[in-house]
UniProtKB/TrEMBL annotation:
<dbReference type="GO" id="GO:0009051">
    <property type="term" value="P:pentose-phosphate shunt, oxidative branch"/>
</dbReference>
<dbReference type="Pfam" id="PF02781">
    <property type="entry name" value="G6PD_C"/>
</dbReference>
<dbReference type="InterPro" id="IPR022674">
    <property type="entry name" value="G6P_DH_NAD-bd"/>
</dbReference>
<keyword id="KW-1015">Disulfide bond</keyword>
<dbReference type="Pfam" id="PF00479">
    <property type="entry name" value="G6PD_N"/>
</dbReference>
<keyword id="KW-0521">NADP</keyword>
<dbReference type="InterPro" id="IPR036291">
    <property type="entry name" value="NAD(P)-bd_dom_sf"/>
</dbReference>
<feature type="domain" description="Glucose-6-phosphate dehydrogenase NAD-binding">
    <location>
        <begin position="107"/>
        <end position="285"/>
    </location>
</feature>
<keyword id="KW-0560">Oxidoreductase</keyword>
<dbReference type="GO" id="GO:0050661">
    <property type="term" value="F:NADP binding"/>
</dbReference>
<protein>
    <recommendedName>
        <fullName>Glucose-6-phosphate 1-dehydrogenase</fullName>
        <ecNumber>1.1.1.49</ecNumber>
    </recommendedName>
</protein>
<dbReference type="InterPro" id="IPR001282">
    <property type="entry name" value="G6P_DH"/>
</dbReference>
<dbReference type="GO" id="GO:0004345">
    <property type="term" value="F:glucose-6-phosphate dehydrogenase activity"/>
</dbReference>
<keyword id="KW-0119">Carbohydrate metabolism</keyword>
<dbReference type="GO" id="GO:0006006">
    <property type="term" value="P:glucose metabolic process"/>
</dbReference>
<dbReference type="InterPro" id="IPR019796">
    <property type="entry name" value="G6P_DH_AS"/>
</dbReference>
<dbReference type="InterPro" id="IPR022675">
    <property type="entry name" value="G6P_DH_C"/>
</dbReference>
Length: 586
C-alpha cells in the first residue's frame, strides 16, 4: 500500500507545514524523497507529488505513471489517503511487509475479572471469525504467579463460540489457546517488562513487529505500566498502541494530569481510550439511522424534537465492588462517559466524512456547545435495603467495602442543554442508577405534539402518552421502534399507541458481537473513530467537574430509594420541571 501524508494538521498541531503541500519523508533521516523501495519493487513518488495538491487538509487523486503497480493493488478504490507524517513510518513499513508482519497483544492485568470475562473472550471471538492477523501472539501479564498452562486453563473457562458456527469450536479453542502465553511481573518494573520484551521477540521470530498493550489495571498504576512498557517493551520498528480503560481521572485536573503523564511516553495517536458503550451495535448504528434515512435527518432538531432521554439502569447493586465504586459514584462511572458520549454522537452535525478525526471533531463541537451542569438540574439518590417476596436485598452502605456514612450517589438524574442553533432549548435528560427495577440502556426521542391535532379529544388527559417517540434500545434485546397513534379496528373511533418495531433478534439471525470485539479489532487496525480523543475528554470533564465538586463540598445527602424500585421521586420532579415524562415509566 502507498499512503501519502499531508503535513497539514489540526489546530492542536499548528507547527505543521502549509496546508497546500504534500510531504514525503525518508523515515531514517526525515528528508523529502522522490522514490521509495517496497521489497524488490521501486516506486517513483515524484510524479505523484506533481499530481496532487491539497486543500484544507484533505485530498484524493489518482497517481501518475508508476514504474510497477504491483505494490498498489490494495489501494482502496484507487484513493490515496492523506495522514499525518508521524504515522508515516508505521504505514509504509507495515504494508510493505504485510505477509511477514505479526501482532503481539499483551493484556496487562491478565488475572483480573475484566480480562477473564471480556478481553480474552473477545480476542477468541475475533480469532474464531477470522478477523485476527495470520501471525499473532497473546501474552497475559500480571503480578500473580502463573504458568502458560494455568493461564490457558483460566482463559478456557470463559470462551464461547458463536451460536451459528459451532462445528469446529473445540478445534478453534485449542488453536487459540496455543497462542496464549503468560509472564509474571510487577507493573512498575522496567526489568520485568524487558523480560517480556525478550519473550515477545522470540515469538515474533523475525517478523515485522507490531504491539498492542491493553491496560486492564487500576488507574493509579496506569503511568507506571505505560512508562515501563514504552521504555522496555515497545516495538522497535512497527507500531505500539496502548488501550486505556476508564476512569480517565475524577475531574478536569486529574484527567489533564493523567493525559500529560501518558504523553510523556506516548503520542496521542498511540493512546486508545476505550469506552465500551461506543462499541455497542445500537450505538454504532446511530449515525447510520440518522444520516442514511431521509425521514429522520429533517426531524433531528428543536423544531420537531421536544426532549431526548438517555436512560441506564442496572437491577443489581455494587455487590462487593463498593470500595471501587465509592471513590467514583454513578455520575463519574456512567454519566460523564457512557451517556455523554452517546449524547455527543446523537446530537452532532453531519461530519465531513466517516474518517475518525472528522467524527471526533463534530463530537467535540457538541460538548463545547453544552452548558456546564448546574446543581439545580441534578438529582442524586442512594439505594437502601428492601424486602421483597421474602428476600431481603442489602442497602448500599450495607456493603462491607463501603463506609457507613457514605454520601456517594448510586443514582443520578440530570438535565443538560446544548446552546446551538439545532438544539437550543431542548432538554437532554440523563438517568442512571444501580439496584433499580430492571436492567436496560436506551435512548428515547420524544417528538412535539401535533399542532391543532384533530384527535385531541380522543386522547383526553393522556396527551403525553400519545406523543410520537423513537426508542433505541441498546441493551438487552436490542431494538429500534417508533411509537405512532393508530385507530383500533372497529366501528367506533378509538385510538391506540402502537409500535413499528425492529427487534434485532427477530430480523437478524446472526449473533451480535460483544462491544469489546469491535473495539479490539479497531485498535489492531488503527481505527480511532470509537475511541476518545484528549480534547473530547477535556470537554466532557469541564461539563461535570463543577457540579461534582459542589456536591462533595456541600455534602449533599442523596435521596434514598428502595432496592428494586424505579429510583428516587426527585427524578420525576426534575423531568416535570421541563414538562417531560420519563419514557420508561409507561
Amino acid at each position: 500500500m502507498v499512503t501519502l501524508y499531508s503535513t497539514h494538521c489540526s489546530s492542536s498541531s499548528k507547527a505543521a507545514a502549509s496546508n497546500s503541500s504534500i510531504g514525503f519523508y525518508n523515515y531514517h533521516n526525515n528528508l523529502p524523497i522522490s522514490s521509495r523501495k517496497f521489497g524488490s519493487q521501486k516506486i517513483s513518488l515524484t510524479p505523484i507529488c506533481n499530481a496532487i495538491r491539497m486543500q484544507d487538509g484533505a485530498v484524493a487523486a489518482s497517481p501518475s505513471k508508476i514504474e510497477n503497480e504491483t505494490p498498489l493493488k490494495k489501494l482502496k478504490d484507487g484513493i490515496l489517503s492523506v495522514r499525518p507524517p508521524e504515522e508515516q513510518k508505521d504505514t509504509f513499513d507495515f504494508d510493505s511487509n504485510k505477509d511477514k508482519s505479526t501482532v503481539s497483544i499483551t493484556v496487562v492485568g491478565a488475572s483480573g475479572d475484566l480480562a477473564k470475562k471480556k478481553i480474552f473472550p473477545a480476542l477468541f471471538a475475533l480469532y474464531y471469525e477470522g478477523f485476527l492477523p495470520e501471525h499473532f501472539t497473546i501474552f497475559g501479564y500480571a503480578r500473580s504467579k502463573m504458568t502458560d498452562t494455568e493461564l490457558r486453563n483460566m482463559v478456557s473457562k470463559t470462551l464461547t463460540c458463536r451460536i451459528d458456527k459451532r462445528e469446529n469450536c473445540g478445534e478453534k479453542m485449542e488453536e487459540f489457546l496455543e497462542r496464549c502465553f503468560y509472564h509474571s511481573g510487577q507493573y512498575d518494573s522496567q526489568e520485568n517488562f524487558a523480560e517480556l520484551d525478550k519473550k515477545l521477540k522470540e515469538h515474533e521470530a523475525g517478523r515485522f513487529p507490531n504491539r498492542l498493550f491493553y491496560l486492564s489495571i487500576p488507574p493509579n498504576i496506569f503511568i507506571n505500566a505505560v512508562r515501563c512498557a514504552s521504555l522496555s517493551a515497545s516495538s522497535a520498528h512497527g507500531w505500539t498502541r496502548v488501550i486505556v480503560e476508564k476512569p480517565f481521572g475524577r475531574d478536569c485536573e486529574s484527567s489533564a494530569a493523567l493525559t500529560r503523564s501518558l504523553k510523556q511516553y506516548l503520542k496521542e495517536d498511540q493512546i486508545f481510550r476505550i469506552d465500551h458503550y461506543l462499541g455497542k451495535e445500537l450505538v454504532e448504528n446511530l449515525s447510520v439511522l440518522r444520516f442514511s434515512n431521509l425521514i429522520f435527518e429533517p426531524l433531528w432538531s428543536r423544531q420537531y424534537i421536544r426532549n431526548v432521554q438517555f436512560i441506564f439502569s442496572e437491577d443489581f447493586g455494587t455487590e462487593g465492588r463498593g470500595g471501587y465504586f465509592d471513590h467514583y459514584g454513578i455520575i463519574r462511572d456512567i454519566m460523564q462517559n457512557h451517556l455523554l458520549q452517546i449524547l455527543a454522537l446523537f446530537a452532532m452535525e453531519t461530519p465531513v466524512s466517516l474518517d475518525a478525526e472528522d467524527i471526533r471533531n463534530e463530537k467535540v463541537k457538541v460538548l463545547r456547545s453544552m452548558r456546564p451542569l448546574q446543581l439545580d438540574d441534578v438529582v442524586v439518590g442512594q439505594y437502601k435495603s428492601h424486602t421483597k417476596g421474602g428476600t431481603t436485598y442489602p442497602g448500599y452502605t450495607d456493603d462491607k467495602t463501603v463506609p457507613k456514612d457514605s454520601l456517594t450517589p448510586t443514582f443520578a438524574a440530570a438535565a443538560l442543554f446544548i446552546d446551538n442553533a439545532r438544539w437550543d432549548g431542548v432538554p437532554f435528560l440523563m438517568k442512571a442508577g444501580k439496584a433499580l427495577h430492571t436492567r436496560s440502556a436506551e435512548i428515547r426521542v420524544q417528538f412535539r405534539h401535533v399542532p391543532g391535532n384533530l384527535y385531541n379529544k380522543n386522547f383526553g388527559s393522556y396527551l403525553d402518552q400519545a406523543t410520537n417517540e423513537l426508542v433505541i434500545r441498546v441493551q438487552p434485546d436490542e431494538a429500534i421502534y417508533l411509537k405512532i397513534n393508530n385507530k383500533v379496528p372497529g366501528l367506533g373511533m378509538r385510538l391506540d399507541a402502537s409500535n413499528l418495531n425492529l427487534l434485532y433478534s427477530a430480523r437478524y439471525l446472526k449473533e451480535i458481537p460483544d462491544a469489546y470485539e469491535r473495539l479490539l479489532l479497531d485498535a489492531i487496525e488503527g481505527e480511532r473513530r470509537l475511541f476518545i480523543r484528549s480534547d473530547e475528554l477535556d470537554a466532557a470533564w469541564s461539563l461535570f467537574t463543577p457540579v461534582l465538586k459542589e456536591l462533595e463540598q456541600k455534602k449533599i445527602v442523596p435521596e434514598n430509594y428502595p432496592y428494586g424500585s424505579r429510583g428516587p421521586i426527585g427524578a420525576h420532579y426534575l423531568a416535570a420541571r421541563y414538562k417531560v415524562r420519563w419514557g420508561d415509566l409507561a
